[in-house]
Specification:
Aldehyde_DH_dom; Aldehyde Dehydrogenase, Chain A, domain 1; 475 residues; Ald_DH_CS_CYS; Aldehyde Dehydrogenase, Chain A, domain 2; Succ_semiAld_DH; oxidoreductase
Length: 475
Amino acid sequence: MDQIVNKSLLNATCDASEEAIAVLNPATEEIVAYIPSIPTTEIIALIEKSKQAQKLWQAKPAAERSAVLKRWYDLMIENADDLARIMTIEQGKPFAESKGEVNYGASFLQWFAEEGKRTYGEVIPAPAGNKRMMTIRQPVGVAAAITPWNFPIAMITRKAGPALAAGCSFIVKPANQTPLSAYATAELAYQAGLPRDLLIVVNNHSSVAVGDIFCSHDDIKKLSFTGSTQVGRHLVKQCADTIKRTSMELGGNAPFIVFDDADIDEAVKGAIASKFRNAGQTCVCANRFYVQDGVYEEFVEKFIKAVAELKVGNGLEDGVTIGPLVDAKAKESVLGYISNAVEQGASVAFGGESLDGLFVAPTVLTNVTQEMDIVQTELFGPVAPVIRFSQDQELVEKANDTIYGLASYFYTGSIARAFHIAEQLEYGMVGINEGLISTEVAPFGGVKQSGFGREGAKQGIDEYLNIKYMCFGGL
C-alpha cells in the first residue's frame, strides 16, 4: 500500500482496548483495525486549536488556499487505488464503485480550488452622492461536519472543499463504521500542505456526544450534516441555542418513473445504476418504481433479467457488483421491509433471500401499492418495489406523497412531458432519462424534510461565507 496512505492508518489506528472503536469489514465481519475514541475534553481543545488556525488561514490569499486544495486533489488521484481498497474493506462497496467515489470526492477539491478565487462582493449604487456602499464575503469561521458511512470520502470532501476554499477551518466526525477512509483522506491533505489544525478528524464511541459539542460550542459557527431526517431534526433544534449556520442533507424516498413513451432499455439501465449502486445504500437511489400500464410487463421482464445478472460478493473480488450491507442491523431492517411488504400483498418477483453474512439478494417486488409501508420509507437496501400507474396526474400525486424531497427520476420520450413532470415533482433534484445525477458542478440538495442548503456547484461555497455590508459616508 502506498506509503502516504499507509502512514495515515498507522497514525490513526491503535491497539484493542475498552476505549478503542473496532472497524469491521462487512464482507467478512472481521475486525480490520481499532481506532482511538477521542475524549470529549480533547475534542473541545481541538476546537480551540481550529479557531486559531482559521484566523491565519483566512488571512492567506485565495490563490494560496487554492494551490493547497489542488495539491490535495492531485494526491487523491495518485492514491486512488489505495483509497478505494481501504473504502471497500471497511464499507463493503465493490472496488470499482469505491474508486469512482474517490474520483468523485476529489472532484470537489478541484472545483472549489477555483471557486474559492471567485468569492466576489459587489458595489451598490448609493442613494446619496456623499456615500459609497459595498459588500464583501468572509468565511463563517470554524465549520464542523458529521458525515455518514455510505460515502465515507465524498461526503467529507464535498463539505471540506468549500469550507477550506472559503477560508474556514474544518472539523469532521466521520461514521464509526468507516473512519479509516477519513483518516487516509486527511493525511493526503496534510501531505499537500494543509496545516493539521485546519482539518481535524475526531471519533468517539458516542456520536451523540460529539454532536452535542458541535451544536452547542460557541466557536463552531457552521454545522453541516448528512444523515437521517430524524437525526437532522434533532441537530437543528440543538443548533438553535447558538443560532448556528446549518445545512442538512437528509433522507430520501426517490421515485423512479417509467412512462409508456420511454426507451425501456435505457430505463432499465438507469434503474439498475440508480437502485443497486452501493447495494441500494444511498440517499438518492431509486426507492420506489412507478411504471405506466402500457410498458409495465416489458419493463418488469427486462428489469428482472438485468437484476439477475448482478453478482453479489466481496467487493475486492473481480466482477462483483453488489456488496454487503453495512452491518447486521441494516440487513435485519431490509429483510423486515421485504417480509412486511409480502404480508401486505406484494409478490417477490426476483430475489428476496437472506444470503450468508451481511448479504441480501437483489430483490424485485411486484403487486406493490401506494399504501404499503415499503413505499413510504427509505429502504437503504437492494430492494426495488414496482408500482403500476395509468395517468400522469395520478403519478405526480403518488410520487409527491412523501415527507421527503431529495432526488427523483423519470424516463420519457416527450419533451413536453419532460418539462411538465419535472416542474411538478417536489424534489430538489430531477434526473430526466438519467439514473446518475451527482456531479461537483451541479447543486446537490433537497426540499421538504430532505433538508436545506446545497453542496457542490457555485452555491456550495455560499454555505461557508457571510456577507458583510460596508457603508462609507462623508465622501
